[in-house]
Design goal:
Helix 2 packs parallel to helix 3 (111-126), helix 13 (457-468) crosses helix 14 and helix 18 (602-626) runs antiparallel to helix 19. The chain folds into 3 domains: 17-138, Chitobiase, domain 2; 144-472, Glycosidases (TIM Barrel, Alpha-Beta Barrel), CATH 3.20.20.80; 510-551 and 589-665, Alpha-d-glucuronidase, C-terminal Domain (Alpha-Beta Complex). It starts with 21 loop residues before the first helix and ends in a 12-residue tail after the last helix. It is an alpha/beta fold. It contains 19 helices and 18 strands. 35% of the residues lie in helices and 12% in strands. The site of alpha-D-glucopyranuronic acid has 8 residues, from loops.
Length: 677
């Protein structure tokens, strides 16, 4: 018999709406019995359904839908007076109390604001915040809040760790499109407003999504539209060739016209299509370089085709030489994105947007922030984060990424003096931009719990909340997710929060030290392999020998990468003395006997963090076991199994890395712990 994923509790994620605990239930029982939704257009059914579902679940009584706004206990109505709060995605949520009866009003200038206000109300209710006098005026700080799916049409997912695609199988759409609707609902609840449904490495079959397979796009777009989400497509820059032209040269008028006609056809079918995402001249993808053209010429050609329809072209900055010779010590992959794109600043079209990975290399557990942030002043730009845990344990390890993303967002670029943080850049408040925002590479798949590891749902939730408001504190996001997912039981809340909040550091401890990155197995990127990438073509070298490790990226003696930052940061990174220690091996070549601020030598630091990392996973297991009686048995068993697997892998990492360095240095562990010779 086929297993029906919806039967599991974890399928509901943070929208399970389980009955409120007694105290809260008593407070709200008998309230919110009538609901009225007005002028919500195409989103009205989703709003009404959510209120019914939410209130029924939380309070055990389904509200009645009524026409009369005055008479309803919960009113959701546009247009409201949100002019001051930032437009049609913003809302105002007000609660008044009259003789013990609470009256909730959600208003917005637009339909999407009403939907977001509805989710905000249900969230606040679960957190026990709804009371007479409660008022919240909220809205997204960014216009583009995107998920990038790396889904292939055959149903596989590049870097997917939670099953198969929820959109595609065997080059068609999946049968269970209800699941796509559930997904759209989850995304809308955290404010996502755009989804790229296919892989940036566009397959031949996926090229057809802008041709004979456009019907698939139309079907998906219609499902997402119900939740106010626009669909985007990854496109192949060389598509004209696949459709019979003999060139894809962006300055060729035939090519330009071809894209214009293609866009017109697409928009005739899907009038609210968001636009295109492009990986060009990167990792063997075609691009303008093939024709001796620039990225400006490539991106602007597509931007022009999309412009009449209000679409945007999102152009990725992940461009570097992936054919490097390891013997070549002059080329530095970390420099590539800045070297390619900074000189083009100010030349991209109004509806072209650069998408920049958070770090200069590739989603390692620790990287400095890309110097393109702060380096581009006159270019629309969005931050790209990786929610799928390619290099951070592949959803078999717990690694909660919100603390890492917060560090990225809080990074001060100094582009316009102190306070020019990445968060302020991607919200368009440092430089004026037409488009700004955040994109995240999705971590979901067909697994019953969506994300493989149930606790990895927190990464999706946290991502959405940060895309909505990069200023939200980690603690708030974490608390929200834990309470919405696990309820209010204090021991559970405390334990799950502890597990999440410590997990990134723990993962870093037992894997790769001080920003060096890349000690993983080539190809699939899981598990330790200290020299897995050392003699490869990918430009990712640590160059460890028996005296030192690391790449000198200073201006004075090294590759000059440190000089791509504004002077305040460039100075900091330039010298071993001032470089933040967690990035020491990213920026400098350091002898194993170098003494760190802790007073320990580098080699001792490596040993200590690796042993510590393993102990921390042991403690995570102990903590989790203590709440066995208080969480759903299936969830408990699943998380326990993942943590036990994590412990086994952490031990493997610890032993391999420690032995690797011991063999080079022959320096024993000061504490005499077991290191395999
Ligand atoms: C990483 C990842 C690839 C992916 C690429 C990208 O290198 O391993 O699978 O295609 O990033 O971001 O395009």
């Amino acid at each position: 018999m086929a297993f029906h994923p919806r039967k599991t509790r974890d399928y509901g994620c943070w929208l399970n709406y389980e009955r409120l605990p007694k105290g809260l239930w008593q407070r709200y029982s008998g309230q919110f019995s009538t609901v009225s939704v007005r002028n919500a257009g195409g989103l009205a059914p989703a709003i009404e359904e959510e209120l019914k579902r939410g209130l029924e679940g939380l309070l055990g009584q389904s509200p009645r839908l009524v026409e009369d706004l005055e008479a309803a206990a919960v009113t959701v109505c546009a247009p409201g007076d949100e002019a001051d709060t930032g437009g049609e995605e913003s809302f105002r949520l007000r609660v008044q109390e009259d003789q013990g009866q609470l009256k909730v009003s959600i208003t917005s200038a637009g339909e999407r604001g009403l939907l977001y206000g509805t989710f905000a109300f249900l969230r606040a209710l679960q957190l026990g915040q709804i009371a007479g006098g409660f008022e919240s005026a909220d809205g997204p700080r960014t216009p583009l809040r995107l998920l990038n799916h790396w889904d292939n049409l055959d149903g596989s997912i590049e870097r997917g760790y939670a099953g198969r695609s929820i959109f595609f199988q065997d080059n068609r759409l999946v049968e269970d499109l209800d699941r796509v609707r559930d997904y759209a609902r989850l995304l809308a609840s955290i404010g996502i407003n755009g989804v790229v449904v296919n892989n940036v490495n566009v397959s031949r079959e996926a090229t057809e999504l802008i041709g004979s397979k456009v019907g698939m796009v139309k079907t998906l777009a219609a499902i997402f539209r119900v939740y106010g989400i626009r669909l985007f497509l990854s496109i192949n820059f060389a598509s004209p060739l696949e459709f019979g032209l003999d060139t894809a040269d962006p300055v060729n008028s035939q090519v330009q016209n071809w894209w214009k006609e293609r866009a017109a056809k697409l928009y005739a079918e899907i009038p609210d299509l968001g636009g295109f995402l492009v990986k060009a001249d990167s990792e063997h993808r075609p691009g303008p370089f093939t024709y001796g053209r620039t990225h400006v010429e490539g991106a602007n050609m597509l931007a022009e085709a999309l412009k009449p329809f209000g679409g945007v072209v999102i152009w990725r900055c992940f461009v570097y030489n992936c054919q490097q010779d390891w013997r070549d010590t002059k080329t530095d992959r970390a420099r590539a994105a800045y070297d390619h794109f900074q000189p083009l600043d100010g030349r991209f079209a109004d509806n072209a947007v650069l998408q920049i990975k958070n770090g200069p290399v590739d989603f390692q557990v620790r990287e400095p922030v890309s110097p393109l942030f702060g380096g581009l002043e006159r270019t629309n730009q969005i931050l790209e984060l990786q929610i799928t845990q390619e290099y951070t344990g592949q959803q078999r390890h717990l690694c909660y990424l919100v603390p890492m993303w917060k560090e990225v967002l809080d990074f001060d670029t100094y582009a316009r003096g102190p306070g020019s943080t990445v968060a302020r850049i991607v919200t368009g408040s440092v430089f004026p931009m037409h488009w700004s925002g955040i994109a995240g590479v999705a971590n979901v798949g067909s697994d019953p719990n969506w994300t493989g590891h149930t606790l990895a749902q927190a990464n999706l939730y946290g991502y959405g909340r940060l895309a909505w408001d990069p200023g939200l504190p980690t603690e708030q996001i974490t608390r929200e997710w834990v309470v919405l997912t696990f309820g209010h039981e204090p021991a559970v809340v405390q334990t799950v929060e502890d597990l999440l909040l410590g997990s990134w550091e723990t993962y870093e401890n037992y894997t790769v030290p001080l920003g060096i990155g890349w000690m993983c197995n080539p190809g699939h990127h899981f598990g330790p392999s200290p020299e897995g990438y050392e003699f490869s073509r990918w430009g990712t070298y640590h160059r460890a020998d028996c005296t030192a490790i690391g790449v000198d990226r200073s201006v004075k003696r090294g590759t000059g990468y440190a000089g791509q930052y504004r002077p305040e940061n460039a100075r900091l990174y330039e010298s071993v003395q001032t470089c933040p220690e967690e990035l020491l091996l990213f920026f400098h070549r350091i002898p194993y006997t170098h003494v760190l601020k802790s007073g320990k030598t580098l080699i001792q630091h490596i040993y200590d963090t690796h042993f510590e990392g393993v102990e921390q996973v042991e403690q995570m297991i102990e903590k989790w076991k203590q709440i066995e009686e208080k969480v759903d048995p299936e969830t408990f068993a699943h998380v326990l199994q993942r943590l036990e697997e994590q412990l086994e892998h952490a031990r493997e990492w610890c032993d391999v890395i420690n032995t690797y360095f011991y063999r080079f240095t022959h320096i024993p562990d000061a504490q005499g712990r077991k290191i395999y010779p």
